[in-house]
Write a structure and sequence with these properties.
By secondary structure, the protein is mainly α. Helices cover 68% and strands 8% of the residues. It is flat, with a radius of gyration of 25 Å.
């Protein structure tokens, strides 16, 4: 009688325990933040903190759909970005610590590049050749930049359609303009701006020390920081390849299908051994 060979599930182990601990700490932070904000009557922040729990489910769903296996340290990086969004928006870290936004976008450039690397392995398998490895790191870099573009588009749509201010304003003191020149053959340079006065229809005024840029510098600055993070990923993984691949193995696991096939092979060997011994 033929018997079906089933791949054995790997034991939870330290890595699995760390994975669930990270998810638990993240969920507690989201729920705790939500309770706090509802208590102080900040409903928007409370709802936002609660909705961020869904990111943990999205990660698990993506790993199942795309057969992508990740290390706990990688999951920690993704969730750290999510925590940073809550800290920056709800706890106002973006105002209290202006460099905080730069740190988050730089970290996202690296984390999503690693995600792209793991995703590419689903299609071409674990890269054993230099050509395959280069394809994985280049796809990782491109994937990271795609996420950056999609995020900035999301910020723009939130600003344009919902009236939010996700594209942070910046105070600048000069700009160049083809519009003021009336032609693209010359440019008017406006420099040394120390004050802008905004006149409202009811006669009130608002004075700004400089000129208010409404998102251009923030958007392109965020994409530039993410680009730098992706470049650091390329450099680090290129050096790591020459050094033996320890960093890659620490962050990214081979495709889940390869592990399933390996487990099935081991199960088949055990079954064959059992039949020969009976």
């Amino acid at each position: 009688m033929s018997q079906k060979i089933r791949a054995k599930k790997p034991p939870v182990g330290a890595a699995g325990a760390a994975y669930f601990v990270i998810l638990g700490v993240y969920a507690c932070f989201c729920v705790g933040s939500s309770v706090y904000f509802f208590t102080v009557h900040q409903v928007r922040n409370g709802v936002m903190s609660l909705l961020f729990i869904l990111i943990a489910g999205v990660i698990e769903l993506a790993s199942v759909l795309f057969c992508v296996r990740t290390r706990p340290v990688f999951i920690a990086g993704v969730l750290l970005i999510a925590v940073g969004c809550i800290l920056g928006t709800c706890y106002d870290f973006y105002t209290k610590l202006p460099v905080f936004d730069v740190i988050l976008h730089g970290l996202s450039g690296v984390v999503f590049a690693c995600c792209g690397f793991a995703l590419m392995q689903v299609f071409i398998g674990e890269p054993t050749s230099l050509k395959g490895y280069v394809a994985c790191i280049l796809f990782g870099f491109a994937f990271s930049m795609m996420i950056a573009v999609l995020w900035e588009l999301f910020e723009y749509m939130s600003t344009a359609l919902l009236g939010l201010d996700m594209q942070e304003d910046s105070i600048i003191h000069g700009f160049g303009s083809y519009f003021l020149a009336g032609s693209h053959n010359e440019i008017v340079i406006v420099d040394g701006i120390v004050k802008t006065v905004i006149y409202y229809g009811d006669g009130q005024t608002l004075v700004i020390d400089g000129y208010l840029d409404i998102g251009l510098y923030d958007t392109l600055g965020d994409m530039l920081v993410c680009f730098i993070g992706g470049i650091l990923f390329l450099a680090a993984f290129a050096i790591d390849r020459a050094a033996g691949g320890k960093l890659c193995r620490a962050l990214i696991l081979p495709p889940a299908k390869k592990f399933a096939a390996r487990a099935a092979a081991e199960g088949g060997s055990e079954l064959a051994a059992g039949e020969s011994g009976s």
